[in-house]
Design goal:
Number of helices: 4
Helix content: 55-70%
Structural class: alpha+beta
Radius of gyration: 23 Å
Strand content: 15-25%
Distance between the termini: 43 Å
Strand order of the largest sheet: 1-2
Order of helices and strands: HHHHEE
């Protein structure tokens, strides 16, 4: 439980501030290096989970795509008229503090499929 609190604190504030808050709130003393290491490990684990989920979605999409091509004998006239799906992309950047008082730009990108809202 303390590990979760440490990581949550470090996600919202700088590592040195997380050290102070953890000591103040929970009476637990850890080094800044420990906070950094555990937060980065938690981030890497979360990234691995997200990558695995993305891989599974891509595999499912490929299976559906192959299955659709194998069973379809009719040409898809809809494809010539309109795309079957639409995608949306959003990106942003923000300056974030790094170790030693250095700042750098962190860039994020979100890509998703647009789905129509079905009425009941």
């Amino acid at each position: 439980m303390q590990h979760e609190h440490l990581v949550h604190l470090a996600l919202g504030v700088s590592f040195p501030k997380a050290v102070k808050l953890l000591t103040k709130l929970m009476g637990v003393q850890v080094s800044e290096a420990t906070v950094r290491r555990q937060t980065e490990e938690a981030g890497a684990a979360y990234e691995a989970v997200q990558n695995e989920q993305a891989d599974q979605l891509m595999e499912e999409k490929e299976k559906k795509s192959k299955k659709g091509r194998a069973t379809s004998c009719q040409p898809n006239t809809r494809a010539a008229k309109e795309p079957e799906s639409k995608m949306i992309r959003s990106h942003d950047g923000a300056m974030v503090p790094l170790v030693g008082g250095v700042w750098a730009e962190a860039k994020t990108v979100v890509v998703g499929h647009v789905q129509s809202k079905e009425s009941p």
